[in-house]
Design goal:
22 strands, 2 domains, eight-stranded mixed β-sheet
């Protein structure tokens, strides 16, 4: 899944990290971050296997980035064209790159999708090559490719028009949060449907990247924390949130993407929360995807972030529940602790402390969602 979108004058690229291949090819299943962290990796795919992980968004310089989807050989041929244009000392623009792609017959089939964030004429814009779906509305345009393209289109097309009317200083945060809400929906699908989740059966997911053009250059968005927790209302109808039973963080070191994920389970022997499947994935750019690795028990990546995607499953009654995301931006790691929560791994254990502001924010988010459901039910009854 790759996509590029414009929110007013803000420009963004999205991509997942899974590399897949047919099962008949002789290669091992690669581990990848997911809520259900099986010992052998992630979910079993019906017809394909996860053959590796890679950053599918390649940042060439401050003003040129490309997201790729399709067959590996086609992607590497497309990357070779970038290198050729650079070696020939030509100015790297989307027009020149598109011309090079279209002059190669091999790259004109249905096995390659490319979305480019780069200078186009007198300004930086988003252009594309190959099979692409699109969506446009007021203040917003989007293109998407790969097996998850329609899911990306469906997510952004469900927003009301006013959601795209954001002030200048909030464009990057709003665009990132919209993308995170899409990723949250994929994680919810994995939690609820396990190996039948659409992201898994359609061969995308595992982790995501967001690139944004701001401050005059292209930046990959670091320090995103994902969490999944369950909650119930107490006798006073105040929401009691349990410690997260899944944590994941994405950040960067040099040009590598780092993803740390773990499952938090209560040990029945002593009642303490213990970490399981605590793994750190070092994910290289697609140009050297063979260098991607996974390490067990590495604590180099902490669980503090600048963006939080907190997925909460609210249970009520004996059998009823709903799951929704809470998305928020924090200015600093200190803000994350004082206004969000503090996850602290210690030995094989992990502890959590929710701030008062976080508990209030989550409670208000859940109550507002329940009110929305109630109003929707009343509308149906009136009809």
């Amino acid at each position: 899944m790759i996509s590029g979108f414009r929110l007013r004058y803000g420009l963004f690229l999205q991509s997942d990290i899974l590399l897949t291949s047919p099962k008949e090819l002789n290669c091992e299943d690669a581990e990848f971050p997911t809520y259900h962290n099986y010992e052998s990796g992630g979910f079993p795919l019906p017809d394909d296997r996860v053959s590796g992980l890679a950053q599918k968004t390649l940042t060439i310089n401050d003003h040129f980035a490309v997201a790729f989807s399709g067959r590996g050989d086609r992607i590497f041929s497309a990357i070779h064209l970038i290198r050729k244009l650079t070696v020939d000392n030509q100015e790297l623009t989307s027009d020149r790159y598109l011309s090079a792609l279209r002059s190669d017959p091999e790259l004109m089939d249905e096995n390659l999708s490319v979305i480019i964030l780069a200078p186009a004429g007198d300004e930086v814009g988003i252009t594309y090559h190959g099979p692409i779906r699109d969506f446009s509305t007021v203040n917003f345009d989007m293109v998407a490719g790969g097996s998850g393209a329609q899911h990306a289109i469906d997510h952004f097309s469900q927003y009301p028009i006013e959601a795209f009317d954001v002030c200048d200083e909030d464009i990057v945060a709003q665009g990132t949060c919209m993308a995170l809400e899409q990723f949250a929906n994929h994680i919810i699908d994995e939690i609820d449907n396990q190996e039948l989740a659409k992201s898994i059966t359609e061969c995308f997911g595992g982790g995501y990247e967001i690139s944004a053009f701001y401050d005059g250059k292209i930046n990959k968005v670091p320090d995103i924390v994902y969490a999944f927790a369950e909650a119930r209302f107490d006798e006073d109808m105040y929401l009691q949130v349990e410690p997260p039973n899944f944590l994941m963080k994405t950040t960067y070191k040099d040009d590598n993407l780092l993803i740390r994920s773990l499952v938090n389970e209560v040990d029945p022997a002593d009642g303490f929360h213990k970490r399981r499947h605590d793994r750190t994935f070092t994910i290289a750019p697609i140009t050297r995807f063979q260098e991607s690795t996974v390490e067990e028990g590495c604590e180099d990546v902490h669980f503090l972030g600048k963006f939080l995607c907190f997925i909460i499953k609210v249970r009520f009654g004996k059998f009823n529940s709903f799951t929704i995301p809470f998305i928020k931006k924090y200015n600093t790691f200190e803000d994350f602790v004082t206004k969000g929560f503090f996850p602290l791994p210690m030995a094989e254990h992990i502890t959590f402390k929710y701030s008062k502001e976080f508990n209030r924010d989550i409670h208000e988010r859940v109550v507002a969602y329940m009110k929305k459901l109630e109003d929707f039910g009343k509308t149906l009854q009136e009809e």
